């Protein structure tokens, strides 16, 4: 058994007022994790990193369905 750790992600941009909207962040994390593991065949640690990155991106966007215009290409 192995435990994966991650130091986290820092966003360089913030919403007006410095607030975040976490609606959809957990769903995005899980979707990226499942896609990475089952469809892309990635290792556990990389799948977790992708899930955390996408969940963090969605958490800094307003609303459950952000426009994704500024989303990194690797997500």
Please give the number of β-strands. 0
Percentage of residues in helical conformation:
40-55%
Sum up the overall morphology in one term: globular
Oligomeric assembly: single chain
Report the portion of residues in β strands.
under 5%
H and E string: HH
Helix count from the secondary structure assignment: 2
Task: Report the sheet with the most strands, covering strand number, pairing sense and barrel closure.
Answer: none
The structure class reads mainly alpha
Low-confidence blocks of residues: none
Radius of gyration: 13 Å
How would you describe the overall organization of this protein?
With 75 residues, the chain is mainly alpha-helical. It has two helices and no strands. The N and C termini lie far apart (27 Å). The mean pLDDT is 79.
Chart the SSEs and their pairings:
Blueprint (H helix, E strand, L loop, with lengths): L24 H15 L4 H16 L16
What's the short story on this structure?
This protein has 75 residues and is mainly alpha-helical.
Features:
0% strand; mainly alpha; single chain; 75 residues
């Amino acid at each position: 058994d192995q435990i994966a750790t991650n130091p986290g992600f820092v966003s360089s941009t913030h919403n007006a007022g410095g607030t975040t909207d976490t609606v959809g962040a957990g769903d995005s994390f899980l979707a990226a994790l499942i896609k990475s593991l089952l469809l892309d065949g990635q290792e556990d640690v990389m799948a977790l990193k992708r899930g955390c990155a996408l969940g963090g991106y969605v958490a800094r966007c307003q609303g459950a369905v952000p426009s994704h215009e500024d989303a990194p290409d690797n997500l």
